[in-house]
Design goal:
By secondary structure, the protein is an alpha/beta fold. About 45% of the residues lie in helices and about 15% in strands. It contains seven helices and five strands; from the N terminus they run βαβαβαβαβααα. A five-stranded parallel beta sheet has the order 3-2-1-4-5, sandwiched between helices. Helix 1 links the parallel strand 1 and strand 2. Helix 6 packs across helix 7. It starts with a strand and ends with a helix. The chain binds 4'-phosphopantetheine.
Length: about 180
């Protein structure tokens, strides 16, 4: 039987528990799920593509049919390169729908064989977005529960380099 490969494209700056929830759901219905980080030169991201890839790889370690990759150019072209027949996207609220519909229909026009599959994250993540997480973290609000612990740590280090230095010293201390 044909293996169904899906891609889950996005910016993931940073990856959230909402993304993880969707990855977990997607991994149950697709044979293989590729989390594809867009290398977007127009954006000014908080985390480099390499940092985002590292976080996503750690977050998805437990799923043996999920892998993380990066891409540039059109999503439909990337999907064709990796032989994916579906694009997974999350819809949280009605406000997401218009943009997602536009994107899905444009992608269908460009590549009619590629299906977009929408999934809803768990309710507790229905208001979580990377943008709000970044804003909360930058303004000193708690992001606990919105992102995995690893991402929380990376955000703290990114926004306060002193914490990074302290963590590196603690690690080095443990090794000696
Ligand atoms: O996490 P995001 O930022 O909502 O993801 C948006 C993404 C990466 C899925 C979208 O911007 C995209 O597919 N970009 C690649 C370029 C492309 O194919 N553009 C045409 C989309 S109709």
């Amino acid at each position: 039987m044909k293996k169904v490969i899906a891609i889950y494209p996005g910016s993931f700056d940073p990856p959230t528990n909402g993304h993880l929830d969707l990855i977990s759901r997607g991994s149950k219905i697709f044979d293989e799920l590729i989390v594809a980080i867009l290398r977007n030169p127009d954006k000014n991201p908080l985390f480099s593509v390499g940092e985002r890839r590292g976080m996503l790889e750690a977050m998805t370690e437990e799923f043996n049919n999920v892998r993380v990759d990066t891409f540039d150019g059109l999503t439909v072209d990337y999907a064709a390169r990796v032989k994916a027949s579906a694009v997974l996207r999350g819809i949280r609220a009605i406000s997401d729908y218009e943009y997602e519909l536009q994107m899905a229909l444009m992608n269908r026009k460009l590549h009619p064989e590629l299906e977009t599959v929408f999934m809803m994250p768990a309710e507790q993540y229905s208001y979580v977005s990377s943008r709000l997480v970044r804003e909360l973290a930058q303004l000193g609000g708690s992001i606990a529960g919105f992102v995995p612990e690893l991402v929380e740590q990376r955000l703290k280090e990114k926004l306060d380099p002193a914490i990074k230095l302290q963590n590196a010293r603690t690690k080095a201390g443990k090794r000696t």
